[in-house]
Amino acid sequence: MLSKSSILVVDDSPATLANIQEMLSDSPYELAFANSGESAMEFLARKVPDLVLLDIQMGEMGGFEVMKMMHSNPELCEIKVIVMTSANNLETEIEALASGASDFIHKPLHPDILKLRINNLLATVRTEYLERTHREAIEMIAIAGHYNDNETGEHIWRMADYAALIAEAEGFSPEEVELIRIAAPMHDTGKIGIPDAVLKKPAKLDADEWRIMKRHTQIGHQILSRSKAPAFALASQIALNHHERFDGTGYPTGYKGNQIPLISRIVTLADVYDALTMERPYKEAWSSDKAYEYIIEESGKLFDPKLVETFIRIRPEVERIRIAYGAKEAS
Prior knowledge:
Rossmann fold, Hypothetical protein af1432, 5 strands, 8% strand, elongated
């Protein structure tokens, strides 16, 4: 995305191709041209542009057929398409948009309208790119937090799905639930600052080592709070508080009950359940029944009693997630 945005212009009229080239001559785009649907598909097999400017009415392979082939190809289906046509009727416009076009423009083309439509659509391409990059960065941070410990890769994503499920059952909005699903995997980011001798010690930690280990909550908060982006702001809160206990005997602050942020109480429950039901080098996986018995026993001590009630109520959905990940790991 640091390079010029690329546009493939497809039209069977040499005059139209030349006209568009002239209209966009002062624009910061890398332009390519195809004079048929077939040549457009040949180009797309070699290179994926950011945008296709596509005529509807061409020879053997028209614009609708090109869009159909693009949307059946995983590598091409997300390319933005602006449809061009001389047909001035509502039916054609509806069919174009229903076929996957992102926008629609009538011929004869007006230079200012063409540039504005292209600029607006490419702005969405850049936004989607930044959002995808943001999500990938979050995933890498989450993985980095567990890079040196004995957690399995699936743990952080499965735990996040449990947390999102609890949040949904607690009445969080769909947008909040998705934010929790993104932020929860970063809960142990601070482990990146814990020495291997402590993090990987095969025996019980002594008092000094335990003090070092507990610092991962504050280290994670310090790292993640550097960003004001919603996902990182939420993750910093989770990282700091996910080892607090409902009865006030947790760390690092010793918060009690509702002093602990709700999202941290949710992640604590999701994290512990997943840790109990997964196999680790030093323990066998607990059955779901045994894990639920432990969670009920710890209600009001480690866990928020209201969240425990919710977790019991949504157990069928919890089991579906656990089984689905088990099938994924086995495949």
